[in-house]
Design a protein that fits this description.
Order of helices and strands: HEEEEHH
Number of strands: 4
Structural class: alpha+beta
Shape: elongated
Radius of gyration: 23 Å
């Protein structure tokens, strides 16, 4: 292991990682209203599907052995530090960057996804981007 990589690993061991706390208690009001623009029912054989157009409804319906969940589809927002594109900046991304640290475009160990500032070098600037966004979740 080279000296810069050894220093990098030691530096990363000093970065504190703590738990994330969710909201709880208090008088939160999560009520909402739906004003659908229209609805309809489709049938085919033994299956029936009922839906509405207008404001999207996030709910689940079930009958027999079938269930339908309605809601929103989300996609991870790209962020510096998310090397593997899973919507999280976590230790997996850090390991990718540590492995490619100190490489340049054209070298076998260079990983373009780790070069967040696209300067053709995986260096301390990329590491700082990852550390800044560490713990980010797109979900």
């Amino acid at each position: 292991m080279s000296t810069p990589r050894t220093l990098l690993v030691l530096l990363l061991c000093l970065v504190p990682v703590g738990p994330a706390m969710g909201q709880s208690g208090g008088g939160y009001d999560l009520s909402w209203n739906v004003i659908p623009g229209g609805s309809g029912t489709m049938t085919g054989g033994t299956y029936t599907l009922t839906g509405s157009a207008g404001q999207p409804v996030t709910a689940a319906s079930a009958g027999g052995t079938f269930a339908v969940a309605g809601g929103f589809w989300t996609f991870p927002t790209p962020v510096a530090g998310d090397v593997d594109g899973d919507g999280l900046v976590d230790v997996v991304d850090l390991l990718w960057l540590v492995r490619a640290f100190g490489t340049y475009r054209g070298e076998a160990a260079y990983v373009a996804a780790c070069d967040f500032n696209q300067d053709d070098a995986i260096d301390v600037v990329d590491l700082l981007d990852l550390i800044y966004n560490f713990g980010y979740s797109a979900f």
